């Protein structure tokens, strides 16, 4: 069933995207500014479910690539957002019919809204991850054999490139060094898929889910209910830690925002490690949750999601674990997005809704 | 007047290219292997003078990009050489009609021969520099407003990209980081030009000149004459130093072979600084020749050119200065290829055939 996305929903979409971004994906606020502008200029966007996409459609993902720390300082123009799509149109020799989100976290939930509005195309209610991940090959379509390339990229200076690579990891490698050289933040479009492939390879319903999470926080707050608990329920997750941010180490290296944060609870400390997104949550040697499952930091009072670049000393936070799309737990998927890929010599600690120990200080 | 380039001339072309490469441009031997193979498989190449290129021709340069230190270990296949040309064919939507050399030094004098043979296209007797330079925007066409992009690049793994950039410096920047990521050596094709623009912007007759230099060394050696003197005469240059290589510092950084060499003469030492190509020749504070004029190191006995990566302790060498194409001495050109661009706080010391002091130990 198709529905219409209007400008008044963008703030809630962005809030949900900050939750699903698991700390990364870029601050959705900048994407929401652009989406609101595009909807104001070009009218609302039609969101179609995967079921409604014709088999022979040409679906492309549209995304911002780069370090979130830099993205927040470089709001792209609408022209910049759609330039890679036009480059692919030309390269493929046929018109794009649908826009999709590569990831449903962070800025890349709202940027495709802006693209769809500016292009006058429907947006698919789906995404490639069900969350956010830091590298472009880290989407379920890669597991289904969908090639990232031809993938186009562009920047605010008018530079545009089209890559056709040996595999999706090479698309990431070449686009990433270009991204760093071009100022650590570029627009990309790629993963051309037919409707039938998109139906198989994407996560269905993620835009609606993201909106529900965002509006759930708003509604809980209005009702003076616990917004964190509302989010936990929508995610099928669990709150497993609460405390005060006491230490944040953050650097922008090789095109990523990498770092770690420490949160002190009543009796113990939680260490979070991130590369754009939160990857590992542990206390001393005890590991609680790891990528690909979701680690989400929320403001303890308001339930507002906090991105890794927004973490500050003294914040009172509550930390949620939630299950990822189950397809991320296959051996092939874990090789791509598991702890080992990011350099952690740890098995993946799968969140199943019951196995996580609830630590001290949790109020819900 | 057109002429035919056959496999038996390739060794001499490569030798001349090592002279005009001023130490850089990659070891022409690896390009000569590929050119000989292409001529054997596809037959001889027709070389046409710039006068013969139709006004509406589509001329493209074909070149290898990367660190010469790496190029010598990565002989490309013919498929790899022509893949970027095919990518541009498709991108431009019309067939390429002529191949041209971006530079007449090093591997990039013989690689276009291989490309022309494999593509069945005529090769233009011209190049973009009249020598070799380390960065891709450093061609006379840049001064005539010819855009490097669309520029295509490709590697041995099957990765291909097409860039359309804001200016030629951005083409260099993005292609260079891609090149480094792809293993420090890639094939490129770009600078699409009409015949009339090529006539204005390229250096005419450079292939024939290069062949004459190479065969001049061979002939002098056969006649037991001085091969260095023969080269000096063909270049309109001057031998200004001779001695023994006593020190070579060389590193491959940011995609370039950078370093310096010291040559001890009878009473003084000559210091050469290079970035792929020789840039500066000086003795203490006294500067003798600088980029864009040519600094060429030849074996003292055989007159064989020595590339910067071929410099070794103990070699007895003679050093030549020769004038570049005069267009390289405009203020705009010097901003692009003069000593200052490479980080040397020196005025350009123009070689005029008489101004250079002849130092001790010179035998000619």
UniProtKB/TrEMBL annotation, chains A, B:
Residues 9-164 form the S-Me-THD N-terminal domain. InterPro entries: S-Me-THD-like_C, S-Me-THD_C_sf, S-Me-THD_N, S-Me-THD_N_sf. Residues 167-347 form the S-Me-THD-like C-terminal domain. SUPFAM superfamilies: CV3147-like. Gene3D superfamilies: CV3147-like, CV3147-like domain. This is DUF917 domain-containing protein. It comes from Leifsonia soli. The lineage of its organism: Bacteria, Bacillati, Actinomycetota, Actinomycetes, Micrococcales.
